[in-house]
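Example S7 (structure tokens).
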């Protein structure tokens, strides 16, 4: 890894367990995307559609009823 590039000695640096785990995780992600790309594609396509056409999101947010937390009241103090 990086230690062999910056080291002054001619020997070879030993791979650590963390480096090995990182390689295994990256390989697992690669195989996961190679054989299970359809769900990822559906998710990213839906996300892109939401970003390009935000009308559904805007309408949903604006039509939602606000929820008051902490037992507060919407009435102004002193008004009946």
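Recovered sequence:
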């Amino acid at each position: 890894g990086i230690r062999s590039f910056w080291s002054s000695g001619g020997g070879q640096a030993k791979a650590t367990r963390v480096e090995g785990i990182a390689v295994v995780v990256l390989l697992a992600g690669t195989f996961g995307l190679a054989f299970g790309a359809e769900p990822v594609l559906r998710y990213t396509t839906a996300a892109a559609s939401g970003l390009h056409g935000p009308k559904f999101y805007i309408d949903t947010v604006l039509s939602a009823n606000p929820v008051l937390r902490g037992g507060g009241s919407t009435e102004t103090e002193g008004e009946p």
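Notes on this example. The CA atoms of residues 24 and 57 lie 39 Å apart.
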